TrEMBL record:
Belongs to the metallo-dependent hydrolases superfamily. TatD-type hydrolase family. Its EC number is 3.1.21.-. One of its GO terms (molecular function) is DNA nuclease activity. Gene3D superfamilies: Metal-dependent hydrolases. Transmembrane segments: none annotated. The gene is ycfH. PROSITE patterns: TATD_1, TATD_2. This is Putative deoxyribonuclease YcfH. A divalent metal cation 2 binds at H145, H171. The lineage of its organism: Bacteria, Pseudomonadati, Pseudomonadota, Alphaproteobacteria, Rhodobacterales. It holds the Pfam family TatD_DNase.
Length: 277
């Protein structure tokens, strides 16, 4: 039997080494006027760096302003697959130019979502390919959203890899085992969100348990998917410590060991996101 999963924090959690929230959305209305407090609470929980993800061109300036205001906050840029039908198309050249910003550390989030927006599948695929090309040209990692589109996702990612190498993280991974295996075979990373801490998510925990430790990241995807004991409430970057506690249990490690491993993985995947010495 696998060990019982708990995301409850202990007094010793304050002694954890640095954690990173590799994926959140600080520009969302849920956090309006609170970013100072969010960053401070994250730091108090050991979360020293945060990547806030831009999902549409109309939000770019706000995301840049947020990342520019805090040394430990970085951003990515991409067009979310669920926004493809309502936002102007983003070309590879535009993505490459936007990514020149010094605090832009990745391309995306992009991907495929056939659960909510299957009607725009063709446009999503075109957009995904543009993002892959931008990742290849810039050397920045791709940030992938995948929902109910495993076969097409694997096919398009593999096609891109055959053309030219690139790095990638499958954010908030909750897809099937086959897509996880394919992503890992291509050298990609899987990111663990609060979903892994949900009591009924044993299948997801099993997928992570089979993954190499050096290919695992942690994230909140806040304001969504808060782990226990905050499930059902607004998520925030500080809560990545609760997901990391579950990750440590999955891998049979101490919390300090898991935090150190996932932070080292983040540094390897996101080399731009290093704090100045």
């Amino acid at each position: 039997m696998p060990p019982e999963i708990s995301a409850e924090m202990s007094p010793d959690d304050a002694l954890l080494p640095e954690l990173v929230d590799s994926h959140c959305h600080l520009d969302f209305p849920d956090f309006e006027g609170e970013v100072d407090q969010l960053v401070a609470r994250a730091a108090a929980a050991g979360v020293r760096r945060i990547v806030t993800i831009c999902t549409k061109l109309s939000g770019l300036e706000k995301v840049r302003a947020i990342s520019g205001a805090y040394p430990g906050v970085f951003h990515t840029f991409g067009l979310h697959p669920m926004s493809v039908a309502e936002e102007p198309p983003i070309t590879t050249a535009e993505l490459v130019e936007i990514a020149r910003h010094p605090k832009c550390v990745g391309i995306g989030e992009t991907g495929l979502d056939y659960h909510y927006t299957a009607e725009s599948a063709a446009a999503q695929q075109v957009s995904l390919r543009n993002h892959i090309e931008a990742a290849q040209q810039t050397g920045l990692p791709l940030v992938i959203h995948a929902r109910a589109a495993d076969e097409d996702m694997e096919r398009i990612l593999a096609e891109g890899m055959r053309h030219a190498p690139y790095s990638c993280v499958m954010h908030c991974f909750s897809s099937g085992a086959r897509l996880a295996e394919a992503a890992l075979e291509m050298g990609f990373y899987l990111s663990m969100s609060g979903i892994a801490a949900f009591p009924k998510s044993q299948e997801i925990r099993d997928i992570f348990a089979r993954a190499p430790l050096d290919r695992v990241l942690v994230e909140t995807d806040s304001p969504y998917l808060a782990p226990p004991p905050f499930r059902g409430r607004r998520n925030e970057p500080a809560y990545v410590a609760h997901t990391a506690k579950v990750g440590a249990q999955i891998f049979g490690l101490s919390e300090a060991e898991f935090a150190a491993a996932t932070t080292a993985n983040f540094d390897r995947l996101f080399p731009r996101a290093r704090l100045a010495a």
